[in-house]
């Protein structure tokens, strides 16, 4: 290996490429702004009357590269976040040289330095010195940092239809680049405009430009092979330059893989990353963790890298097979969360939606990945496994308040059974019933309160579905709402005793308000009509907009009158109704 201490301008003038296996640009505005703050603080320490007579260097750390003999570019193994961020800083300073009308010859000279740091004009077109394997990132970077020189030109470019589409994805590398430029403008605007005198502003800008290009120093370590580069990278990481476990795993795969395997590993990794980049509920570290839980057994998220490292090093070819598993599971995750198979039953679609949007329990997905791999073409068996994990997750986490660690253990054990071809009944008997037995579930559900409209409707929906014996109530939405029998805002006229109880203990009132015994699914037309009226009016008012309406297909509203106490709806009414609903229907509604 060899090492060179390079100034920012010396570094950025060289051709670097970000390979496909590298993570995307992920620095947040907070991280970019911290770099700006550090540079500005360094400037303040050494400047005298907006000049830099004798500045010290500012060390930006070490980076690791490998020369690609074919392209002649240096492949960045570690350091692309800093390279990219430095490029955005140079781009903004470049714009300001013209904005402040810096006098010649400084303006032309420094503009030339900026251009040379950002790119070259080759074959009648501009090319950036820092290139990306992702063509969309490459295009955005080129146009935002080099071709669109001024802020107004950048903003015009960002308003194009293509850019608006890409910038709508808030987790994407393109959006992070956009944020880095926008936050950089904010920092430089504030720093320059501290001064009122135009001449001093220009001196400050020129001096800051010199500091960034000449005083920022990076130790660039050039390795002779990828194997050496990854060893150096890991050594640096172990000494405090921390990356996510996803980044470490990716580099570990490439480190142990044979040269002929690397291209497919890169493709598989890229496929997996693209699937989760479009997800609002899961990131790449989650997918890595859940895929491992689903296939190889229990592991804590913090220990994932060490486990994967040991696994792929245990035999030749495992790095490649692991990358294939990951790509397969990423596609499966997409099918389980976004692109449902039209051949699956409506119930399967509905339950997958509930797992994602209502329960929000991500640890269901290791089990679902295993079920998908085994039964994606067998809609009945797949449905049985989807129902099983949804019911278990609701029982264990939402009702019994179980621990996430135990949930992870149970899900991993159950996933391995699915991999072996065990049925949903066998999995329930061997794993899930141990952690969420009927007796304990029913006992806790009898007094459960769900202060969330989505979760509360989930509970009454599945009870109602069981009561309707085959018919299906409408999902929560425009046509059917969640009804509170005892209303959220009771009036003294219609609910005098409840108002008094609420004034005595508002927390107790809230607890009873959201208990299953106080909740109903109800058509939107009836719900709007009865609003906060008294219990007698809600049960029967002769208008057709009431719990006992002849046209109402739902069962539970018509039985509310059974639980009145001396003609009133009370806390005791809620307790009695919830006890009956739970005892009669809960085990069937959430069967294991």
Automatic annotation (TrEMBL):
Domain GmrSD restriction endonucleases N-terminal: 17-254
Positions of the GmrSD restriction endonucleases C-terminal domain: 454-582
InterPro entries (alphabetical): GmrSD_C, GmrSD_N
Protein name: DUF262 domain-containing protein
Origin: domain of life: Bacteria
Any Pfam family matching the protein: GmrSD_C
């Amino acid at each position: 290996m060899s090492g060179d201490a390079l100034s920012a301008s010396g570094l950025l003038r060289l051709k670097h490429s970000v390979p496909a296996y590298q993570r995307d640009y992920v620095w947040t505005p907070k991280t970019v702004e911290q770099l700006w703050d550090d540079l500005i603080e360094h400037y303040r320490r050494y400047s005298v009357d907006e000049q830099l007579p004798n500045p010290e260097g500012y060390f930006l750390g070490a980076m690791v590269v490998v020369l690609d003999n074919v392209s002649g570019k240096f492949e960045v193994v570690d350091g692309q976040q800093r390279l990219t961020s430095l490029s955005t800083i140079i781009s903004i300073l470049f714009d300001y040289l013209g904005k402040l009308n810096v006098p010649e010859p400084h303006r032309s000279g420094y503009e030339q330095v900026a251009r040379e740091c950002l790119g070259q004009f080759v074959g009648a077109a501009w090319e950036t010195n820092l290139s990306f394997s992702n063509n969309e990132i490459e295009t955005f970077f080129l146009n935002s940092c080099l071709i669109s020189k001024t802020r107004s030109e950048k903003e015009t470019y960002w308003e194009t239809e293509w850019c608006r589409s890409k910038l709508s994805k808030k987790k994407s590398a393109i959006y992070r680049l956009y944020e880095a430029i926008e936050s950089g403008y904010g920092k430089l605007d504030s720093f320059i405009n501290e001064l009122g005198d135009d001449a001093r502003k220009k001196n400050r800008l020129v001096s800051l430009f010199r500091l960034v290009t000449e005083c920022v120093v990076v130790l660039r370590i050039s390795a002779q092979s990828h194997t050496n580069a990854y060893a150096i990278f890991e050594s640096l990481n172990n000494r405090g330059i921390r990356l996510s476990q996803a980044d470490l795993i990716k580099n570990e795969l490439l480190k142990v893989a044979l040269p002929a395997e690397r291209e497919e590993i890169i493709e598989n990794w890229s496929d997996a990353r693209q699937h989760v980049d479009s997800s609002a509920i899961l990131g790449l570290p989650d997918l890595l963790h859940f895929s491992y839980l689903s296939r190889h057994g229990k592991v804590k998220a913090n220990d994932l890298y060490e486990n994967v490292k040991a696994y792929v090093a245990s035999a030749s070819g495992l790095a490649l097979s692991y990358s294939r598993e990951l790509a397969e599971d990423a596609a499966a995750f997409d099918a389980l969360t976004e692109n449902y198979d039209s051949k699956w039953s409506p119930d399967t679609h509905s339950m997958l939606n509930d797992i994602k949007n209502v329960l929000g329990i991500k640890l269901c997905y290791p089990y679902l990945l295993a079920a998908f791999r085994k039964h994606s073409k067998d809609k009945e068996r797949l449905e049985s496994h989807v129902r099983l994990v949804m019911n278990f997750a609701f029982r264990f986490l939402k009702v019994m308040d179980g621990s996430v660690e135990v949930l992870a253990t149970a899900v991993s054990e159950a996933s391995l059974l699915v991999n072996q071809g065990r049925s949903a009944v066998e999995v329930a008997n061997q794993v899930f019933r141990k952690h969420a037995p009927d007796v304990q579930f029913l006992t806790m559900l009898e007094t459960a309160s769900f202060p969330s409209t989505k979760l509360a409707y989930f509970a009454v929906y599945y009870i109602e579905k069981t009561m309707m014996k085959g018919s299906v109530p409408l999902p929560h939405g425009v046509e059917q709402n969640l009804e509170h029998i005892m209303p959220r805002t009771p009036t003294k006229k219609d609910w005098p005793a409840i108002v008094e109880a609420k004034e005595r203990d508002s927390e107790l009132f809230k607890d009873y308000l959201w208990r299953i015994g106080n909740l109903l699914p109800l058509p939107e037309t009836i719900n709007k009509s009865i609003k906060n009226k008294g219990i007698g009016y809600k049960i029967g008012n002769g208008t057709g907009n009431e719990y006992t309406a002849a046209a109402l297909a739902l069962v539970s509203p018509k039985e509310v009158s059974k639980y009145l106490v001396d003609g009133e709806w009370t806390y005791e009414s809620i307790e009695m109704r919830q006890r009956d609903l739970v005892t009669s229907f809960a085990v069937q509604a959430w069967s294991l």
